[in-house]
C-alpha cells in the first residue's frame, strides 16, 4: 500500500493544526472556516489493494485504520474545497420538490461503489439541492454555526463513537459534559444552583425544543405528584405570542389541554416583550377559574424580533404562584458571554431551567443545545427508567450522573467534545470578538436601511437581527404586505442571498440576521444593494 503523505489542516490565518504541540496558545477568529484552501473540483482518488474491492469500493473491514486514513484525507479535501467555493453556490437551493428521486436509482447497489463515484454524485446531485447555511450570504432564520474546532470535535466524536447513556458506558463523556457546561454557566454568570456541584446541573440536548420539553415534563410531574394525576387537564402553561413554537409542541407531547396554553399578546410599546401585567392578569383569571398555573417559558431573544422578556419581574410573579420558570435563550444566550449583554439575563436566578443553543451562534456544529436545571431531582424523577439490563454499581451508588435520565432518548452522542474544543481552541476572548463583530455588522446594515427613506425599521435591534420593510407611497397595509412578500421572493430567487420574514403587529416584515461564520462587511453591503435594486423594481411596477 502506498505511503500517505503527512498533512495538516490550517485552522485560521497564521495557525495550523497537527499532531505536534501547537506553538501558539489558541486559534483566532473571525473566519473559522477560512482555513481550508484547496480546489473544489480537484479531488484526486487512488486505490489501495488492501483497503479496496476490485471495483474501487471499500472492503468490508468496516473500521480499518489505513482505509480510514486514506479516505478521510479525501473527504476533508472535499469539504475544504466546498468551503473555499461556497460563495459560488446559490444560497437558497433552486431545485423543485422531488428533483432527487429522478437522479438516484430506485434501489441500493448490490456491490460497493468507489468513494470517487459517491463524491461525484454529492457534487452534481446533492449539493444543488442544499441550502447553504454556512454561506456568508446566508441571513435567514437564525444561524447554525460551523467552525474548524467544531468540525474537528465532531470528527473525533464520530471516531470514538460511543453511546454515553450512563456514566459507566463512558465516564469521560459524562464528566466532560459536566465540566464544559459548568465552564459555560460561569461565562453566563448563571446561579451556582445550575452547576454540577450544586443541586442542579447541565446536560446537552439536541435542540431547544428538547430542552423545553424535558423542563415542562419535570414541572408537570412535580405538580401532579402533589395534586394527583387527575389534575392534568387543569394545568396551564404561559408564554407570549412571540414565544417559539416549540412550547406548543412540548404542550402537545406533555398532554397539556390545548385550551390551557396561554400565548399572551405583546405590544410594540414593550418592544414585543412579555408584559408582567398581562401575565399577572392571566394567572389571576386562571386561579379564579380553578385552574393550576404550571409553567412559564420566557425568552431572551425571540425568533421574530429578538425581544427580551423582563426576567426579573416575571421571576417574582412565578415565585409568588409557584410556577416553573424556564428561560429560552436559544439564540441570544451566546451574546450574553459578553459583559455588555449580560444584563439581559438579570433575574435568571429566579429561573428553574435555562437553555442556550451552542449550535446557533457559538461556533459549535449542530446539534448542541445546553440545558441547565436548578433541581436535577425533579428532572430525574420525571425521566428516569432503570431496567435490569442497565443496572450497575456506579449508578446504584448514587455518586454519578446518568444522562439517560436527563433526556428523552436513551442513547446520546459525545457532544461535549466539540463544545470543549471550541472553548479551548478559540478561547473566550475570541468568541466574544466573534459575537461583537456580527452585532457591529448588523448595526451597519441597520444604518444603511435607515438612510433609505423608502424603508422603515420595524423593531428595535438588540443583537444581530434587523427587522425592516419597504413602504409603499399609499401607506395601505395590505398593499405594503404584498409588496414586501414580492420583494422577499425576488431577493431569494436571485440565489445571491437568503433572508426570511415574520409578522409583527400585522405587518409583513423582512428579517436579516448576521451570524454566518464567514460573513464580512462586503457581504452586508452587497446584500443591501441587492435589496435596494429589487425594491426599486417592485416600486416601479407597482
TrEMBL record:
Q: Which Gene3D superfamilies match?
A: Aspartate Aminotransferase, domain 1 (3.90.1150.10), dopa decarboxylase, N-terminal domain (1.20.1340.10), Type I PLP-dependent aspartate aminotransferase-like (Major domain) (3.40.640.10)
UniProt xrefs under InterPro entries: Aromatic_deC, PyrdxlP-dep_de-COase, PyrdxlP-dep_Trfase, PyrdxlP-dep_Trfase_major, PyrdxlP-dep_Trfase_small, Pyridoxal-P_BS
SUPFAM superfamilies under this entry? PLP-dependent transferases
CDD domains attached to this UniProt entry? DOPA_deC_like
- Molecular-function annotations in GO: L-tryptophan decarboxylase activity; pyridoxal phosphate binding
State the UniProt keywords alphabetically. Decarboxylase, Lyase, Pyridoxal phosphate
**What would be one Gene Ontology cellular-component term for the protein?**
cytoplasm
**Top-level taxon in the UniProt lineage:** Eukaryota
Q: Which cofactors go with this protein?
A: pyridoxal 5'-phosphate
Pfam families associated with the record? Pyridoxal_deC (PF00282)
User: Where on the chain is N6-(pyridoxal phosphate)lysine found, per UniProt?
Assistant: 360
Query: GO BP, one example?
Result: amino acid metabolic process
Tell me its family: Belongs to the group II decarboxylase family.
Q: What is this protein called?
A: Tyrosine decarboxylase
